[in-house]
Amino acid sequence: MDTSKYTTHVPLNSIKINDSFWAPFMERVRTQVIPYQWEALNDRIPGAEPSYAMRNFKLSAQRSHPELNYGVDNAAGHGGMVFQDSDFAKWIEAAAYSLAWYPDPALEKTLDEAIDIVCNAQQPDGYLDTYYILTGLEKRFTNLKDNHELYCFGHFVEGAVAYYEAAGKRKLLDAMIRYADCIDKHIGPEEGKLHGYPGHEIAELALVRLYNITGDEKHLKLAKYFIDQRGKQPLYFEEENKRNNNDFYWKDSFFQFQYYQAGKPVRDQHVAEGHAVRAVYLYSGMVDIARLTGDEALMQACDDLWNNIVNRQMYITGAIGQSAYGESFSYDYDLPNDTVYGETCASIGLAFFAKRLSAIAPKGVYADVLEKALFNGIISGMSLDGKSFFYVNPLEVIPEASQKDRTRRHVKIERQKWFACACCPPNLARIIASLGTYVHSVNADTLYTHLFLGSEARVKVGGRDVKIGIETKYPWEGHVGISFKLEDKAQFTYGIRIPAWCNKFTLVLNGGATNYTLKDGYALIHREWKSGDKLDLTLDMPVTFIEANPRVREDIGKTAVTRGPVVYCLEEADNGPGLFKLHAGDAKEPKVQYEKDFLEGVVTISFTGKKETDWQEDTLYRNAANTALEDKELRLIPYYAWANRKIGEMTVWVNK
Amino acid sequence: MDTSKYTTHVPLNSIKINDSFWAPFMERVRTQVIPYQWEALNDRIPGAEPSYAMRNFKLSAQRSHPELNYGVDNAAGHGGMVFQDSDFAKWIEAAAYSLAWYPDPALEKTLDEAIDIVCNAQQPDGYLDTYYILTGLEKRFTNLKDNHELYCFGHFVEGAVAYYEAAGKRKLLDAMIRYADCIDKHIGPEEGKLHGYPGHEIAELALVRLYNITGDEKHLKLAKYFIDQRGKQPLYFEEENKRNNNDFYWKDSFFQFQYYQAGKPVRDQHVAEGHAVRAVYLYSGMVDIARLTGDEALMQACDDLWNNIVNRQMYITGAIGQSAYGESFSYDYDLPNDTVYGETCASIGLAFFAKRLSAIAPKGVYADVLEKALFNGIISGMSLDGKSFFYVNPLEVIPEASQKDRTRRHVKIERQKWFACACCPPNLARIIASLGTYVHSVNADTLYTHLFLGSEARVKVGGRDVKIGIETKYPWEGHVGISFKLEDKAQFTYGIRIPAWCNKFTLVLNGGATNYTLKDGYALIHREWKSGDKLDLTLDMPVTFIEANPRVREDIGKTAVTRGPVVYCLEEADNGPGLFKLHAGDAKEPKVQYEKDFLEGVVTISFTGKKETDWQEDTLYRNAANTALEDKELRLIPYYAWANRKIGEMTVWVNK
Fold this sequence. Notes:
- The structure is a homodimer.
- Chain A has 17 helices and 23 strands.
- Chain A has about 650 residues and is an alpha+beta fold.
- Strand 20 (about 620-625) of chain A pairs antiparallel with strand 14 of chain B.
């Protein structure tokens, strides 16, 4: 692998987002999501199931330190899921990113106090998982497959790294280094250690983030061990099952141990399988290890898995995980719109995967998919007021079906306040709050811009400090203004992504023509840059009708409407019931309109389509000669904004 | 209700079927299904799960009569399902019908010996359910909701009646009369009795059949009580739950007690709900009671339920029960072709319902639906060699989906030899063997012909004996020749069904014109009939493209190909994989060909359709402007004959 082109993404503390589209989302995360989640973690939401997350830490701390009293009854037991600790870890990660964007001393104080509690729960040998601390430490590390110990650890590491990077405070980071030491003592290749790995992946990528800070080879080695050991014979999960005298739920399913991506060595995995969130977390860790070790076989697996997802198993919204059973990938070209799982977290994990691949090879396809997921299948997970969430992101909803068809029970018709398994809301918070890190990356001689977010960033290219600003009304308008500030002139390449959806664009430098070469989805301009340089990218952004590969049974004869990176949908609120009766028709001259006061400000699309004429007869079948279509005005809204009005049908794909 | 027009179907012993289409099916039932099932009931099928059905009777008999020894270890327990007795009961019913058609002394001897065993198992008070006899009689009648006691009783009565009618032997019939007495002592409106009814219906219609023979009001009264009491408050099943300190599986489903059609009084039920087989068995019993009691409110419910099924919830094949969850009806216009349950038994039950409605009002729609079910969704349940069976009858199959999509696990891609819950094979046997009773019915002055089956029947119309013969190559050809033989001339009305699918027909009497009036789907000819009269009905039978009501989301933009009563399908064996990519196109001049040596002799349909052109690109989405269709020769076979070659895709509905 040629590692000389590897790029590094600009970290959060070097960029300030002020984007007209995304800043309001970040503000909602800051003012709604993070405070609400803190209340939830502390069991202070009236009417909601208690989380027990903070109580578990307090109780663990009290038991370890009899002098402490957080007001929890010492006789209480562990509460919530076996992975409840991770809810806190994800929250602290999101809060840390938010602090990096918007300093908030009160929030920082809350974090510090919470970290004190958490650290007081840590055991003398570094162990820190309240489930086993409270239910019996003798059983720790005995059920890596199901009990999410290493998953909680991974999220904890991510939270600790994020807070260290945001606030410069090491307390939680040091605690996690001690916890990593503890895990390293119990799990690894050496004789006497458990030859195991996480049942739910994330520790792999988290340990690499830790290694980036500590530079301690031990952290890299443990991450690599989790990757290398996974799926090797004899299968650790099978051995563990034998020891525990139990079995696994997925035995009776077609994916078997591939539910955990553990049915074969990861380098032999070329098709995305099993639980989608686990999968993309693993693949992200695999890319990290491939990048750091130059492992060609591992890189090949990552490329194949990426291509399989993007070209065979991904919805047009960037949703992944077609099947509710196992919240899993299913099989190539199986993309049902109505029974899809499409977990918010899975699309977020896909963004992680894309970002990491882009660091190895800055190809536009990675940011194209990242952007597709961000503007569609990710933010659809949150209501426009930041107060409720989708776990599942369907592309077609019929409320009656969700109520009466058992196979669509998971397809909710309105966003929920909170979940027993509360992974999606904090995951949304952490990706939205950390969006700044996805905008630019640099290597020795090139500065790349991947996402068009209004922002000011400080980067170092070829040893020079460069300030790069973006001004845009993207995604509603196609103009992206880039400005440069430098102390001195500097020779370097600037690459700006030209999205694959865009067939026509102009690139203007300081008001005039410029030379660029198009490569792998980027317009590359090599020149001597100086302060005050202004680059204007204007992307042609027409309404576009998309069709799916005819191998996709569910989309045959249908079309989806997009404009720029935004996928549109029809809602019953605008188009009446029976959306499946509608046809796009010729859709000549669709009307594109920015509506400032509608759905927090969106561009809507309207055109004259068709509708199957209702029958006079109250019968089910008749001679097909009588088919009739009538004109019907259709109005589409951005997919992410659906379900922010009254309950009703929704569809992304409409008959041609 | 005007009861003067009620008709009586011609019984099996008055008709001899020699139909070119159906006689081979009956022969398969006689030579394959009935012998195979007898072996199965006696646990003599190598490699198959034992049935235990006969063993349960033998064991019960041995325990009741210590002098008996059938070679069963007395220490053995009850085997198989709680309703295992019903498998024997359904088998004896089918065998009895077959004997009526084709005398077989060896089979009759087998039946008599089996009946001896069964009667030896009967308890002194008439009780006869081996599950409770073998597990504890003190618990009998304590779980009417789940334990199928009255269901087994109902099937037993049907079997006993059938054998009595076929062979004139009363032994089993008398045993069932004693069993009915026993039930009557325990269940009924009187104080001290249980105010219950069957969890799985069938006893209602069975008791009416018993009443037809015995004339004993007690039998009618019990049937009527089961109908009247069902769903009344306080709900018996709820009371029973309380007594047993248990609950019901469907509590967490949208149908609640309507799974059992017991959530409200039956006269308040106007939409088909819950378990489909139970539903149509109940509705059949309801029609019987409405007919015998002239109950208008009950009749209205029956009409509404029929209309709801036929106009809102029935597949074009006559399959019903859209949902695998609960093997149930779902909701109006919800007709998924790929996840359908469409149990063979449910379509058979629909035939029972249709036949009974037709007895009250001879409207063509009843026989139209009956015929639709018979030629399509019922016989699709059996392989052409009579050796394997479908429980579920899908209208679209993709083998990979059945293997990998959990929600299609029930959709088998090949017929099975036998089932743990073996209801469909004997149900198929009993309807095919008793087809003769569906052909004609009579009332005081009219003889109706509902089905076009080659046959000779003796009927009494207006006090006169009439022999009516049918000669036809239906459904492959549209000509139906009717011949009459009478001792003397007789004035009566003859009504022959003109199927709703037929837009053009000719009716020729003795080679010349005839006067007829069309009424409710029948051509009625009132005249003086004489021996030797010949009537020639010729139904125009073009290939017809059907479309579904646009409220049916799953069939939008699709068409189904039919010819006469036969629904056609495409199989991968003829059309290659990816059937969902095919379009019917204009389909000018479809080729219709009888192929004698193909699939036991079928008419196939071929025409030039279209196919979505495969993409060069290995991507999922592209600009819709590039759509392309190419010509493709399509070949269709009758739906019922699918899955008799190699495993592959199948679809009934194809894109227009």
